[in-house]
Amino acid sequence: MSLPAGADHPFFDAPITPRVLRGQWRPRRDAYAAAGLYEQVRIRIHRALTWLEASEARGATELDTQLIEQWVALNALYGRWDAQRREPVADSRALGLFVDQLVASDEDGILASFLHRQKDLVMQVFADRYVNRLFWDEPVDGQRIDHAVFDARSLLAQGKHALVVSRLLARIHFVRCQLVHGGSSYGGRHNRRAVKRCSVLLRQFAMVALHVMMEHGYADDWGALCYPPVE
C-alpha cells in the first residue's frame, strides 16, 4: 500500500549501503538463478551494485570519479538495447522510459518519500542555473531558469513525481556529461558544489531504484539488456 504523500518509508529507517542491499537481495537472487528466472533483471542489479560498491570506496576528494561511477550504476539499470540500430537506446529516451516504469512499479511510494526527504537538496539543484542546459543555450537570459524551482515545487505538491525525478536526473546527467566529456578540470573548484549535491542525490536515488526493482520490478520487462554476458 502506498504511503501518504511526503511520509517516510521504512527503507530510510537505517543507513542503506550497496552492501546492505546486496545482502537483502542475495537469497532471492540465488533462488531465481536456480529456477532460471529473471536473468536480465538479475544482471542489471548485479552490475549496478558492483559500480555503487566501487563508488563507495572513493575518498572525500574523489567526488568526480564517485559521481561517474554512480551514474554508471544507474545506467546499468536503465540502459536498453535498440535491436534495429544495434546500439544502446539514447540516454534521454532510455532514462525517460525507466523513470516512468519505476514510478509505476513503486507500490510503496518510496520515490515520493525520497523526494520529500531530500526536498531542500533537490531544490538547490533546480536553483543552480549552471546545471541547466538552457543556461548554456542562452546564458544572458536566465528568466526561464529562475522558474525551475517554482515549477519543481508545484509538480512535487501535485504528486507528479515522475516529472520531478526526470527533470532532476536531467540536471545530474548534465553534470555527468560535463565531467565525462572534458568540460571540467578534475577536482575543479568551480563545480564542487554541484558535483557534491548531485552525488548525494544520485547515490540515494540509485539505491531507491534498486530497492523498487528488487521488491516489485524483478518480473517486469525493463527492455533488452545491453551487452549480455556470453560464453
Brief digest:
The protein contains eleven helices and two strands, in the order αααββαααααααα. It is an all-alpha fold.
E-strand count: 2
Please report which band the strand proportion falls in: under 5%, 5-15%, 15-25%, 25-35%, 35-45% or over 45%: under 5%
Mean pLDDT over the residues: 92
| Largest sheet strand order | 1-2
| Whole-number count of domains | 1
Write the element-wise H/E pattern from the N-terminal end onward: HHHEEHHHHHHHH
The class by helix and strand makeup works out as mainly alpha
N-end to C-end Cα span: 42 Å
* Rg, Å, rounded: 18 Å
Inertia-based shape: globular
Biggest beta-sheet profile: 2 strands, antiparallel
Describe the structure.
There is one protein chain. This protein has 231 residues and is an all-alpha fold. The protein has 11 helices and 2 strands, in the order αααββαααααααα. The chain has a two-stranded antiparallel ribbon with strand order 1-2. The radius of gyration is 18 Å and the shape is globular. It starts with 17 loop residues before the first helix and ends in a 16-residue tail after the last helix. The N terminus is likely disordered.
Task: Name its key features.
231 residues, mainly alpha, two-stranded antiparallel ribbon, 11 helices, 2 strands, 64% helix, disordered N terminus
